[in-house]
Amino acid sequence: MRLVSACLIGIKCRYDGGSKPNKEIIKIFKEGKLIPVCPEQLGGLTTPREPAELTGDGLDVLKGKAKVVTKSGKDVTEQFLRGAKETLKIVKLLGIKEAILKQKCPSCGCGLIYDGSFTGRLIERDGVTAALLKLNGVNIIIEDDP
User: What would the mean pLDDT of 7-32 be, rounded to a whole number?
Assistant: First the structure.
């Protein structure tokens, strides 16, 4: 059993109210091998919601050295941390060792996230949930390589 970003199986949970369905991942989900989650929703954020980016990376947010802010400047760090911790609870309860996560997302992004400037510039870092899962021994698989 693996965890998967819910937007990748067509659940409309992204900030813009949409999803990013991936045919290969949906096929695996239909085989009953994936548990979908949206850390941002688990953290209490609504859908749709204002876009958010990190002022550092996910590890910095976990250490209290960075924040997650919306485009208008609202601090949503608490919701992102809550969502990451709730996701980790699911992982631990089910003994999950792998997760397929959505690239570029401030929660799930693994290896690539937006730089916090809201200009579309990407940096090689992890989102909040991806960082927490990695710290807890979960192998992260990016969406293009399920």
Answer: 97
